[in-house]
Amino acid sequence: MHKLYAKSVNVYYSDNHVLKNISMDISPYSVTALIGPSGCGKSTLLRLFNRMNDFIDGFRMTGEILIDEKNIYNNSTQLEELRKKVGMVFQKPNPFPKSIYENVVYGLRIQGINNKGHLDEVMERALKKAALWEEVKNDLKKSALALSGGQQQRLCIARALAVEPTVILMDEPASALDPLSTFKIEELIHELKAHYTIIIVTHNMQQAGRVSDRTAFFYLGELVEYDTTRNVFTNPKNTLTQNYITGRFG
Q: Is 179 exposed, middle or buried (0-12, 13-18, 19+ CB in 10 A)?
């Protein structure tokens, strides 16, 4: 069922207290948007779910992040297994300087899977799920770097899907893209939530309104409001949320 929870989470980078006592549950098979001004802690929270902050100097966390009732910050957590389960798509498309085919199967290759029939099957399925197959099926040997920005981002989504995660984290996945590519990514998010739990950080209020089921508003490291997206946008309980959504600051 892949339920995700944050329980009483505090995060520090050295002396900087960047997340303050955050508790929230993430609904499975839905899209949860994290919104708020720059530096409010939303990307830090996103990266807690696959332990990407572990590499940052001075990072320290208290509290728990639970996936399927297991605290992923236990010493017994195997990072490789965790990152197979929790895929990540970054702000800027980051394809490897390899062919389209090799980009998609990269995660399987590093697991030692080299059976061509199996790789072919996974590659095609992942590209179809990422709504890219029809555009690239005759060019699989072409360098991924030759694709447009929007295609590269969908390729990165296909690469994340190929290892069969249950959760997909997206850190402003469309902020570097043109409006048409952004529309395709948003359509794709809508389709993917039937099979995956998605958490997305976005600066774009309209995008949060279009793609998410629930929205969490952060300000200065605190979770100010967390509710259905409809409620947050049309009937926020907090004046701070209202002011942010109507563009008075941020």
A: exposed
> What domains are defined for the chain?
4-245 (3.40.50.300)
**Pairwise CA distance, residues 92 & 153, whole Å:** 8
Q: Tokens for 158?
A: 């296909």
Parallel/antiparallel/unpaired status of strands 70-71 and 214-219: unpaired
Decide the pairing of beta strands 31-35 and 86-89: unpaired
pLDDT at 3: 87
> Cα angle vertex 39, ends 243, 218, to 5°?
45
Position 108, amino acid? L
Where do the DSSP E strands lie in the chain?
4-13, 16-26, 31-35, 59-67, 70-71, 86-89, 167-171, 197-201, 214-219, 222-228
- pLDDT category at 1 given cuts 50, 70, 90 is low
Cross-strand bridge partners of residue 28: none
Q: Tell me the one-letter amino acid at 242.
A: Q
Distance CA 192, CA 10 (A): 30
SS3 content of the chain, % helix, strand, coil (to 5): 40, 25, 35
pLDDT band at 219 (very low <50, low <70, confident <90, very high): very high
- In sequence order, which residues have a C-beta less than 8 Å from that of residue 199 and are 6 or more positions away? 4, 26, 31, 32, 34, 46, 49, 167, 168, 169, 170
The per-residue pLDDT for 185 is: 95
DSSP 13: E
